[in-house]
Amino acid sequence: MGVIQKIKNLVTRSKYVMTTQSLTNITDHPKIAISQLEYDRITTNLKYYKSDWDSVLYLNTDGETKKRNLNHL
Questions:
Q1: What gap in Å lies between CA 37 and CA 16, rounded to an integer?
Q2: What is the pLDDT along the chain (73 residues), one digit of tens a residue?
Q3: Of residues 58, 59, 54, the one with CA closest to residue 69
């Protein structure tokens, strides 16, 4: 590998480092070819498979409102 190629590689790597500092979302990067809708779908699926659910409010037989964690299968 020549000296010129090493310099080109260094400039290319630094260009990508500089662009990632100004991103607010991963889909803002030009090399990420994914729509926001698909990104949201993936996030929802990850939440589903992690079983990261909100608490459930229910009414017991005494008429009191109770709170518990959501149980999944």
A1: 25
A2: 688 888 777 777 655 555 556 777 777 777 778 888 998 999 889 888 887 788 999 999 999 999 999 887 6
A3: 54
DSSP notation for 11-63: HHHHHHHHHHTT-SSGGGSTT----HHHHHHHHHHHHHHHT----EEEE-TTS
pLDDT of residue 14: 59
Cα–Cα distance for residue pair 38/44, rounded to 1 Å: 10
Helix (H, G, I), strand (E, B), or coil: what is residue 65? strand
Closest of 57, 45, 51, 44 to residue 73, by C-alpha: 51
Cα–chain center distance at 49: 14
Residue 67 is which amino acid? K
